[in-house]
Amino acid sequence: MWEHCLKRLEAEIAKNEILLWIRPLEISIDDEHVTLMASNDVVLEKVQSRYLKYILAAIKEVFGQQFSASIKLHQPVAHHPVVENKPQNNHQIPSNLDSRFVFDTFIEGRSNTIALAAALQTAQTPNPEFNPLLLYGSTGLGKTHLLHSIGNEILKNNPDEVVCYLHSEIYVNEMVKAIQQKSMELFKQKYRSVTTLLIDDIQFFARKERTQEEFFHTFNYLLEGQKRVIITCDRYPKEVNGLESRLKSRLGWGIVVPIDPPDYETRVAILKEKAKHLGFTLQDEVAFYIAKQLNSNIRELEGALSTLKANAFFTGKKIDLDYTKQILKELFKVNHQIVSVENIQKVTAQYYNVKLSELLGKSRKRSIVRPRQLAMFLAKDLTDKSYPEIGELFGGRDHTTVLHAYKKVAELLGENNDLNEDKQKIVNKLTE
Ligand SMILES: Nc1ncnc2c1ncn2[C@@H]1O[C@H](COP(=O)(O)OP(=O)(O)OP(=O)(O)O)[C@@H](O)[C@H]1O
């Protein structure tokens, strides 16, 4: 259920913010009240001021309108918090590691064998043969899982290491803040004092020249000091437009390893294993069915399982093939169809009776802006494209414009107006 809330929040809150601030919260449910527990004051304050209202709305939607929610500080208990945010040594650098993502829970298959071997080698050897390690592949294939696994493994073997996991977007934000607050020296020192730097989704650095420059120097500093640097990217780094060529070339100095979509057998294995973790056994025929329908993204496999589990929980039904087909029909409908951003633009323009060139153009007329924002929202929701990629496909707009459009549309959809109907009709057209 909580997973559903997190998924629902993606409509309003950027994924990396969810990962950083909300996913690590522990939750407990008592009667019809959900208590969220933060690991420290900073998290408590941030969630309370920025995210609680969205979390409450998601809880009401998923758990039921009668539910309420509050947040408090986590009372230390015998088990570890999910994200280890304890500053390490004297460096005041949080590791940001998620303890659920470890090598033990990573399922090996043909598509990720080399990536897994390289990650293990990096984590388990003091001076890894290949440094930096760069993992690339499209969304939901386990890159972040492997990054955290490397960090967790290193700290398990040597708790004195200073490991830091960071999403590139957070690095950019921190740097902007450091520039504003004239604290660049501190910023530089912070990331140069780690012994392992894990940077996720480096494609976010595209066109951010100042960040790239600073990162380039930090990166060189760490490599010269034989510190580990592990990076992920959503495509082969040379193909990222807007990354400086000297950085691209440095990224390739160690080893560059792809992660491909999992083959059928691996998808079945992942489904069965993940179901076990969710507390139920998946019948073979159900696993075969889902693995056949969803053939690219492991995050989708997880989504299918939690949807199934939540529905079975509420209805008391057994998860067999018929029930699975019934519940996942909607999910598969969208996945069967190859929904591309171009299709979304075309169908949205047709629906609102505006020209495609207007939809992609610069007009600020309300009659154009709203369809454009809805099309951007659908592009984010129905395809694997990132905000910057969608911006590119909408006439070279900045990713913040797409993010703004996404948030605006999500807000309007929550207000029960005509936009809901428009959205549904466009989705129907795309998936019919
Ligand atoms: N081989 C695997 N075994 C077990 N779980 C996996 C595997 N690959 C991916 N997952 C799970 O799938 C989900 C998505 O993976 P992850 O977040 O690592 O993807 P990603 O490649 O970093 O995607 P993105 O670029 O969108 O962040 C996670 O919950 C992760 O644990």
UniProtKB/TrEMBL annotation:
<feature type="region of interest" description="Domain IV, binds dsDNA">
    <location>
        <begin position="313"/>
        <end position="432"/>
    </location>
</feature>
<feature type="binding site">
    <location>
        <position position="143"/>
    </location>
    <ligand>
        <name>ATP</name>
    </ligand>
</feature>
<dbReference type="InterPro" id="IPR020591">
    <property type="entry name" value="Chromosome_initiator_DnaA-like"/>
</dbReference>
<dbReference type="InterPro" id="IPR013317">
    <property type="entry name" value="DnaA_dom"/>
</dbReference>
<comment type="subunit">
    <text>Oligomerizes as a right-handed, spiral filament on DNA at oriC.</text>
</comment>
<dbReference type="Pfam" id="PF22688">
    <property type="entry name" value="Hda_lid"/>
</dbReference>
<dbReference type="InterPro" id="IPR018312">
    <property type="entry name" value="Chromosome_initiator_DnaA_CS"/>
</dbReference>
<keyword id="KW-0547">Nucleotide-binding</keyword>
<keyword id="KW-0446">Lipid-binding</keyword>
<keyword id="KW-0238">DNA-binding</keyword>
<comment type="similarity">
    <text>Belongs to the DnaA family.</text>
</comment>
<feature type="region of interest" description="Domain III, AAA+ region">
    <location>
        <begin position="96"/>
        <end position="312"/>
    </location>
</feature>
<dbReference type="Pfam" id="PF11638">
    <property type="entry name" value="DnaA_N"/>
</dbReference>
<dbReference type="InterPro" id="IPR024633">
    <property type="entry name" value="DnaA_N_dom"/>
</dbReference>
<keyword id="KW-0067">ATP-binding</keyword>
<feature type="binding site">
    <location>
        <position position="142"/>
    </location>
    <ligand>
        <name>ATP</name>
    </ligand>
</feature>
<comment type="function">
    <text>Plays an essential role in the initiation and regulation of chromosomal replication. ATP-DnaA binds to the origin of replication (oriC) to initiate formation of the DNA replication initiation complex once per cell cycle. Binds the DnaA box (a 9 base pair repeat at the origin) and separates the double-stranded (ds)DNA. Forms a right-handed helical filament on oriC DNA; dsDNA binds to the exterior of the filament while single-stranded (ss)DNA is stabiized in the filament's interior.</text>
</comment>
<keyword id="KW-0235">DNA replication</keyword>
<dbReference type="InterPro" id="IPR010921">
    <property type="entry name" value="Trp_repressor/repl_initiator"/>
</dbReference>
<dbReference type="InterPro" id="IPR013159">
    <property type="entry name" value="DnaA_C"/>
</dbReference>
<dbReference type="Pfam" id="PF00308">
    <property type="entry name" value="Bac_DnaA"/>
</dbReference>
<dbReference type="Pfam" id="PF08299">
    <property type="entry name" value="Bac_DnaA_C"/>
</dbReference>
<dbReference type="InterPro" id="IPR027417">
    <property type="entry name" value="P-loop_NTPase"/>
</dbReference>
<feature type="binding site">
    <location>
        <position position="140"/>
    </location>
    <ligand>
        <name>ATP</name>
    </ligand>
</feature>
<dbReference type="InterPro" id="IPR038454">
    <property type="entry name" value="DnaA_N_sf"/>
</dbReference>
<feature type="region of interest" description="Domain I, interacts with DnaA modulators">
    <location>
        <begin position="1"/>
        <end position="86"/>
    </location>
</feature>
<feature type="domain" description="Chromosomal replication initiator DnaA C-terminal">
    <location>
        <begin position="340"/>
        <end position="409"/>
    </location>
</feature>
<feature type="binding site">
    <location>
        <position position="144"/>
    </location>
    <ligand>
        <name>ATP</name>
    </ligand>
</feature>
<dbReference type="InterPro" id="IPR055199">
    <property type="entry name" value="Hda_lid"/>
</dbReference>
<keyword id="KW-0963">Cytoplasm</keyword>
<protein>
    <recommendedName>
        <fullName>Chromosomal replication initiator protein DnaA</fullName>
    </recommendedName>
</protein>
<feature type="domain" description="AAA+ ATPase">
    <location>
        <begin position="129"/>
        <end position="260"/>
    </location>
</feature>
<dbReference type="InterPro" id="IPR001957">
    <property type="entry name" value="Chromosome_initiator_DnaA"/>
</dbReference>
<dbReference type="InterPro" id="IPR003593">
    <property type="entry name" value="AAA+_ATPase"/>
</dbReference>
